[in-house]
Design brief:
four-stranded antiparallel β-sheet, about 290 residues, about 10% helix, 20 strands
Length: about 290
């Protein structure tokens, strides 16, 4: 009976995510979103948290989270997607642990390419050498942080993340180091007026400004994006929102929470979005559950 109820919940109530490639303008508006076509059943697994690590003339090579619905945890996968028809042509599992994995961010250094996926349930932030497999190399931080992004400015490396006390809340933690993958110390916390602290992708330049995308999590998790300009003064950061964006189109409309520019096609971004199996049953379920908890 429990397994049957769980199947109906995954089919009708739970969010189901997918990844898309979109064109973008200088003002960060997007158009022509093309979603990946694949034969994975959404009540078994789905894809989110995309980072395009490579482009060829033919394919996008995307690092992503695959959420395994029956296990309620994610693992890190590599997707090869044909540019012409957006068909998933190849699929590799790179990292599968007993704890949830997501947000497979990466950094390129003189020593190679390294992935530092979110693994807050493990209590630490580890990094792995990227290749046909992932080789664990060490720890970036010996504490649980969520959806980290590392960038360099004025000769220092900064790491932005939220912490376990409120990963979807309004407080952003800032760490600094002289090295890209070790030696970080916390230097400040930045509080926002609403829940826009959790990061949504890598820092990028736009119209001469350093921009960090973040998630809007006021009503729901990952309901939209907040673009925040970074200013650095005396080694400390300030972030000010310049634009807020919510989903467009009907295919995946309730929300989206990742934004990363492509390494070659600089006028394109990889995003994700979600929908419910049935919004009616989703809203009804949470209304009843809310009444039961009163």
């Amino acid at each position: 009976m429990k397994s049957l109820l769980k199947e109906y919940q995954s089919r009708l109530i739970d969010a189901r995510w997918n990844i898309g490639i979109a064109e973008t303008n200088d003002d960060l508006t997007i158009r022509n979103i093309r979603y990946i076509k694949h034969n994975h059943k959404f009540n078994e697994s789905w894809f989110a948290d995309p980072f395009v690590i490579e482009e060829t003339d033919r394919d996008y090579i995307i690092l992503a989270e695959e959420m395994l619905v029956d296990k309620s945890r994610g693992r890190i996968v590599r997707l090869t997607v044909n540019k012409t028809d957006m068909e998933l042509s190849d699929f590799d599992v790179l990292l599968d642990l007993d704890t949830h994995l997501s947000f497979p961010n990466y950094i390129k250094t003189e020593d190679g390419v390294f992935i530092y996926p979110e693994n807050g349930a493990s209590g630490e932030l580890s990094f792995y050498r990227y290749g046909n497999t992932l080789e664990k190399c060490g720890k970036v931080l010996e504490e649980a942080v969520f959806d980290s992004t590392i960038f360099s400015v004025e000769g220092s490396y900064y790491l932005l993340a939220t912490e376990a006390a409120n990963p979807n809340g309004n407080v952003l933690s800032v760490f600094v180091s002289g090295k890209p993958l070790s030696g970080y110390r916390k230097i400040q916390e930045i509080s926002f007026s609403d829940n826009i602290a959790r990061r949504a992708g890598n820092v990028f330049m736009n119209r001469g400004r350093l921009i960090s995308p973040a998630q809007v999590c006021n009503k729901y998790y990952g309901e939209g994006l907040s673009f925040q300009e970074i200013t650095v003064k005396d080694g400390r950061l300030s972030l000010e929102e310049t634009k807020r964006m919510f989903p467009q189109g009907k295919m995946l409309s309730p929300g989206f929470h990742t934004w990363n520019f492509l390494p070659v096609s600089r006028n394109k971004v990889v995003v994700d979005g979600y929908r419910f199996g049935s919004k009616f049953f989703h809203d009804f379920y949470f209304k009843i559950r809310g009444l039961e908890e009163m």
